[in-house]
Amino acid sequence: MTGYQRWALAASPTGPAQAAAAELADAADWVPLDEADVVIALGGDGFMLHTLHRMLERRMAPGAAPVPVFGMNLGTVGFLMNEWRRHGLQERLARARRFQVTPLQMTATAVDGRICTLPAINEVSLLRETRQTAKLEVRVNDRIVLPELACDGILCATPAGSTAYNLSAQGPILPLGSGMLALTPISPFRPRRWRGAILPDKTRISLTVLDPAKRPVSAVADQREMRDVAQVDISMDRARDLTLLFDPEHALDERITMEQFIA
Questions:
Q1: Is residue 119 domain-resident?
Q2: Which pTM was predicted?
Q3: Most CB atoms within 10 A, among 179, 202, 205, 257?
Q4: Is 29 a catalytic residue?
Q5: For 215-236, what is each residue's pLDDT tens digit?
Protein backbone atom coordinates (compact mmCIF):
# COMPACT_ATOMS: atom_id res chain seq x y z
CA MET A 1 0.00 0.00 0.00
CA THR A 2 1.13 3.54 -0.72
CA GLY A 3 -0.30 5.23 2.36
CA TYR A 4 -2.17 7.61 0.04
CA GLN A 5 -5.92 7.11 0.08
CA ARG A 6 -7.19 9.86 -2.20
CA TRP A 7 -5.52 10.26 -5.60
CA ALA A 8 -6.07 13.14 -8.01
CA LEU A 9 -5.10 13.14 -11.68
CA ALA A 10 -3.96 16.32 -13.45
CA ALA A 11 -3.10 16.23 -17.14
CA SER A 12 -1.76 18.77 -19.59
CA PRO A 13 -4.16 19.58 -22.48
CA THR A 14 -1.63 18.16 -24.99
CA GLY A 15 -2.53 15.05 -26.99
CA PRO A 16 -0.01 12.66 -25.36
CA ALA A 17 -0.96 13.73 -21.83
CA GLN A 18 -4.66 13.40 -22.52
CA ALA A 19 -4.15 9.95 -24.06
CA ALA A 20 -2.16 8.89 -20.97
CA ALA A 21 -4.92 10.21 -18.70
CA ALA A 22 -7.44 8.10 -20.58
CA GLU A 23 -5.24 5.02 -20.03
CA LEU A 24 -5.16 5.74 -16.30
CA ALA A 25 -8.90 6.33 -16.00
CA ASP A 26 -9.47 2.95 -14.31
CA ALA A 27 -6.24 2.91 -12.28
CA ALA A 28 -7.83 4.56 -9.23
CA ASP A 29 -10.99 6.14 -7.88
CA TRP A 30 -9.78 9.63 -8.73
CA VAL A 31 -10.90 12.56 -6.57
CA PRO A 32 -10.83 16.33 -7.25
CA LEU A 33 -7.52 18.06 -6.70
CA ASP A 34 -8.75 19.88 -3.59
CA GLU A 35 -9.62 16.55 -1.89
CA ALA A 36 -6.46 14.60 -2.73
CA ASP A 37 -3.58 13.51 -0.52
CA VAL A 38 -1.40 12.82 -3.58
CA VAL A 39 -1.48 14.20 -7.13
CA ILE A 40 -0.41 12.42 -10.33
CA ALA A 41 0.62 15.03 -12.92
CA LEU A 42 0.93 14.13 -16.61
CA GLY A 43 2.78 16.50 -18.94
CA GLY A 44 6.07 18.35 -19.16
CA ASP A 45 8.01 20.61 -16.84
CA GLY A 46 5.79 23.59 -17.65
CA PHE A 47 2.70 21.67 -16.62
CA MET A 48 4.43 20.45 -13.48
CA LEU A 49 5.13 24.08 -12.51
CA HIS A 50 1.47 24.89 -13.20
CA THR A 51 0.38 22.01 -10.95
CA LEU A 52 2.78 23.00 -8.18
CA HIS A 53 1.43 26.54 -8.26
CA ARG A 54 -2.05 25.10 -7.76
CA MET A 55 -0.65 23.27 -4.74
CA LEU A 56 0.74 26.57 -3.44
CA GLU A 57 -2.72 28.11 -3.68
CA ARG A 58 -4.09 25.19 -1.69
CA ARG A 59 -1.38 25.70 0.97
CA MET A 60 -2.84 29.16 1.65
CA ALA A 61 -5.80 27.56 3.44
CA PRO A 62 -5.40 27.55 7.27
CA GLY A 63 -3.83 24.31 8.47
CA ALA A 64 -3.33 22.94 4.95
CA ALA A 65 -0.57 20.34 4.65
CA PRO A 66 1.63 19.91 1.57
CA VAL A 67 0.21 17.46 -0.96
CA PRO A 68 2.95 15.49 -2.74
CA VAL A 69 3.03 15.45 -6.53
CA PHE A 70 4.29 12.54 -8.65
CA GLY A 71 4.84 13.66 -12.22
CA MET A 72 5.16 11.51 -15.32
CA ASN A 73 6.76 12.95 -18.42
CA LEU A 74 4.55 13.40 -21.47
CA GLY A 75 6.35 16.56 -22.53
CA THR A 76 9.80 17.37 -23.88
CA VAL A 77 12.59 17.56 -21.28
CA GLY A 78 10.75 16.35 -18.18
CA PHE A 79 13.45 17.31 -15.69
CA LEU A 80 10.89 17.52 -12.86
CA MET A 81 9.09 14.38 -13.99
CA ASN A 82 9.37 10.61 -13.73
CA GLU A 83 9.21 8.25 -16.68
CA TRP A 84 5.73 7.61 -18.07
CA ARG A 85 4.54 4.05 -17.41
CA ARG A 86 0.95 2.88 -17.40
CA HIS A 87 1.37 0.01 -14.95
CA GLY A 88 2.72 -0.31 -11.40
CA LEU A 89 1.74 3.16 -10.24
CA GLN A 90 0.77 2.04 -6.74
CA GLU A 91 4.11 0.28 -6.26
CA ARG A 92 6.01 3.31 -7.58
CA LEU A 93 4.25 5.62 -5.13
CA ALA A 94 5.08 3.26 -2.27
CA ARG A 95 8.79 3.33 -3.21
CA ALA A 96 9.01 7.00 -4.16
CA ARG A 97 11.51 9.34 -2.52
CA ARG A 98 10.17 12.62 -1.16
CA PHE A 99 11.86 15.94 -1.89
CA GLN A 100 10.91 19.22 -0.27
CA VAL A 101 11.05 22.32 -2.44
CA THR A 102 10.71 25.78 -0.88
CA PRO A 103 9.49 28.51 -3.24
CA LEU A 104 10.64 32.09 -3.48
CA GLN A 105 8.32 35.00 -2.73
CA MET A 106 8.51 37.97 -5.07
CA THR A 107 7.03 41.30 -3.99
CA ALA A 108 7.08 43.66 -6.96
CA THR A 109 6.23 47.34 -6.75
CA ALA A 110 5.24 48.97 -10.03
CA VAL A 111 6.10 52.49 -11.12
CA ASP A 112 2.47 53.49 -10.54
CA GLY A 113 2.52 52.14 -6.97
CA ARG A 114 0.76 48.81 -7.54
CA ILE A 115 2.14 45.97 -5.40
CA CYS A 116 1.99 42.32 -6.44
CA THR A 117 3.22 39.33 -4.41
CA LEU A 118 3.81 36.08 -6.29
CA PRO A 119 5.52 32.74 -5.55
CA ALA A 120 8.24 31.26 -7.74
CA ILE A 121 9.38 27.65 -7.64
CA ASN A 122 12.19 27.94 -10.21
CA GLU A 123 13.22 31.58 -10.37
CA VAL A 124 12.34 35.26 -10.22
CA SER A 125 13.70 37.17 -13.21
CA LEU A 126 13.86 40.84 -14.17
CA LEU A 127 14.06 41.59 -17.88
CA ARG A 128 14.39 44.76 -19.92
CA GLU A 129 11.21 45.62 -21.85
CA THR A 130 12.78 47.61 -24.69
CA ARG A 131 16.04 47.90 -26.64
CA GLN A 132 17.41 50.02 -23.78
CA THR A 133 19.75 48.24 -21.38
CA ALA A 134 18.29 47.78 -17.91
CA LYS A 135 20.08 49.50 -15.03
CA LEU A 136 19.56 48.01 -11.60
CA GLU A 137 20.69 48.63 -8.06
CA VAL A 138 21.30 45.35 -6.19
CA ARG A 139 20.90 45.14 -2.42
CA VAL A 140 21.57 42.12 -0.21
CA ASN A 141 20.14 42.22 3.32
CA ASP A 142 19.64 46.00 2.95
CA ARG A 143 23.27 46.56 1.92
CA ILE A 144 23.96 47.97 -1.53
CA VAL A 145 26.36 45.52 -3.18
CA LEU A 146 26.07 46.83 -6.75
CA PRO A 147 25.11 50.52 -7.12
CA GLU A 148 24.50 50.05 -10.85
CA LEU A 149 24.28 46.84 -12.88
CA ALA A 150 23.84 47.41 -16.62
CA CYS A 151 22.38 44.25 -18.18
CA ASP A 152 19.53 42.65 -20.06
CA GLY A 153 18.25 41.44 -16.70
CA ILE A 154 18.95 39.40 -13.60
CA LEU A 155 17.44 36.32 -11.99
CA CYS A 156 17.34 34.63 -8.61
CA ALA A 157 17.03 30.83 -8.78
CA THR A 158 16.31 28.11 -6.24
CA PRO A 159 18.27 24.83 -6.31
CA ALA A 160 15.31 23.15 -8.03
CA GLY A 161 15.32 25.91 -10.67
CA SER A 162 19.09 26.25 -11.01
CA THR A 163 19.21 23.86 -13.98
CA ALA A 164 16.56 25.80 -15.92
CA TYR A 165 16.78 29.47 -17.04
CA ASN A 166 19.60 30.04 -14.55
CA LEU A 167 21.83 27.45 -16.24
CA SER A 168 21.07 28.91 -19.67
CA ALA A 169 22.25 32.28 -18.33
CA GLN A 170 25.58 30.68 -17.26
CA GLY A 171 24.51 30.51 -13.62
CA PRO A 172 25.71 27.81 -11.20
CA ILE A 173 23.97 24.51 -10.55
CA LEU A 174 22.96 24.32 -6.87
CA PRO A 175 22.62 20.90 -5.22
CA LEU A 176 19.21 20.23 -3.74
CA GLY A 177 19.36 20.88 -0.01
CA SER A 178 22.36 23.21 -0.35
CA GLY A 179 20.49 26.05 1.36
CA MET A 180 21.69 28.44 -1.35
CA LEU A 181 20.26 30.76 -4.00
CA ALA A 182 21.84 31.74 -7.31
CA LEU A 183 21.81 35.43 -8.24
CA THR A 184 22.70 35.48 -11.94
CA PRO A 185 22.95 38.44 -14.35
CA ILE A 186 21.56 38.11 -17.87
CA SER A 187 23.96 39.49 -20.50
CA PRO A 188 25.76 41.84 -18.07
CA PHE A 189 27.57 44.84 -19.58
CA ARG A 190 28.80 46.71 -16.47
CA PRO A 191 30.50 45.77 -14.23
CA ARG A 192 32.13 43.49 -16.78
CA ARG A 193 33.67 41.03 -14.36
CA TRP A 194 30.59 40.37 -12.26
CA ARG A 195 29.09 37.01 -13.18
CA GLY A 196 26.73 36.56 -10.26
CA ALA A 197 26.71 35.33 -6.67
CA ILE A 198 25.74 32.30 -4.59
CA LEU A 199 23.90 33.43 -1.48
CA PRO A 200 22.47 31.71 1.62
CA ASP A 201 18.75 31.13 1.19
CA LYS A 202 18.08 33.29 4.28
CA THR A 203 19.20 36.29 2.23
CA ARG A 204 16.81 39.12 1.39
CA ILE A 205 17.43 40.48 -2.10
CA SER A 206 16.16 43.84 -3.33
CA LEU A 207 16.45 44.97 -6.94
CA THR A 208 15.68 48.62 -7.74
CA VAL A 209 15.17 49.78 -11.31
CA LEU A 210 17.18 52.89 -12.12
CA ASP A 211 15.50 55.30 -14.55
CA PRO A 212 12.39 53.10 -15.12
CA ALA A 213 10.76 55.68 -17.43
CA LYS A 214 13.58 55.43 -19.96
CA ARG A 215 14.61 51.85 -19.22
CA PRO A 216 11.44 49.90 -18.27
CA VAL A 217 11.79 46.46 -16.69
CA SER A 218 9.37 43.59 -16.15
CA ALA A 219 9.47 41.02 -13.33
CA VAL A 220 8.56 37.37 -13.83
CA ALA A 221 7.86 34.78 -11.13
CA ASP A 222 8.09 31.47 -12.99
CA GLN A 223 5.34 32.00 -15.59
CA ARG A 224 3.62 35.14 -14.25
CA GLU A 225 4.77 38.61 -15.30
CA MET A 226 4.36 42.12 -13.93
CA ARG A 227 5.48 44.95 -16.22
CA ASP A 228 6.96 48.36 -15.47
CA VAL A 229 8.34 47.53 -12.03
CA ALA A 230 10.23 49.99 -9.84
CA GLN A 231 11.48 47.54 -7.21
CA VAL A 232 11.44 43.79 -6.59
CA ASP A 233 12.05 42.17 -3.20
CA ILE A 234 12.86 38.45 -3.06
CA SER A 235 12.97 36.04 -0.12
CA MET A 236 12.16 32.40 0.64
CA ASP A 237 8.54 31.53 1.47
CA ARG A 238 9.09 28.87 4.12
CA ALA A 239 5.42 28.72 5.08
CA ARG A 240 4.49 27.05 1.76
CA ASP A 241 6.95 24.26 1.08
CA LEU A 242 6.07 21.67 -1.58
CA THR A 243 6.74 17.94 -1.87
CA LEU A 244 7.76 16.15 -5.07
CA LEU A 245 7.90 12.37 -5.43
CA PHE A 246 10.49 10.56 -7.56
CA ASP A 247 11.38 6.99 -8.44
CA PRO A 248 14.48 6.12 -6.34
CA GLU A 249 16.55 5.30 -9.44
CA HIS A 250 15.75 8.66 -11.06
CA ALA A 251 15.58 11.02 -8.09
CA LEU A 252 15.73 14.80 -8.30
CA ASP A 253 18.87 15.34 -6.20
CA GLU A 254 20.91 12.91 -8.29
CA ARG A 255 19.58 14.42 -11.50
CA ILE A 256 20.62 17.94 -10.46
CA THR A 257 24.08 16.72 -9.42
CA MET A 258 24.68 14.89 -12.70
CA GLU A 259 23.74 17.99 -14.73
CA GLN A 260 27.20 19.30 -13.78
CA PHE A 261 28.83 16.57 -15.89
CA ILE A 262 26.74 16.94 -19.05
CA ALA A 263 28.80 18.35 -21.89
A1: yes
A2: 0.92
A3: 205
A4: no
A5: 999 999 998 999 999 999 999 9
